[in-house]
Amino acid sequence: MKKKKPKADFELSYIFEAPPLAVYNALTTQVGVRGWWTECCVVSPTVGAHAAFVFPYGNFFAVMKILTLKKNKLVEWRCLEGQHDEKAGFRDRHDWVGTKISFRLKAIGRAETQLQFTHHKLGTLESHGACASIWAYFLGQSLRQMLRTGRGMPATV
Question: Structure pTM?
């Protein structure tokens, strides 16, 4: 029997009770990202800029290049540098390098937004399982809570 090949791109889709601008700002500003993903980040909402994200307790970091910013519609990053914790046991601790992350936004009525998240090529990486559950937590729980209450559950120092 043939083994099913994993899907190359990892995708998640959520509907948030928030207008597209609120979701867009959460993904593109330093205050926004610090509210749901990691408090240890440097982000500038500028195409071509680099954004740095550090997760001290997970001993993980990533540096992204901002590829696309289409207000209320699309945010894209490319991972330029990244490293998983040595204790994670991955053979390739830098497997995120070269992957692309896309956040597609679609307005649903006046006060809801659909987020279609794609981490391109994550499905082919050794870190897929760990990263898939972490993305689901940060987007499905932390970002959702931040949009609802003003404060998510980001990684902290």
Answer: 0.94
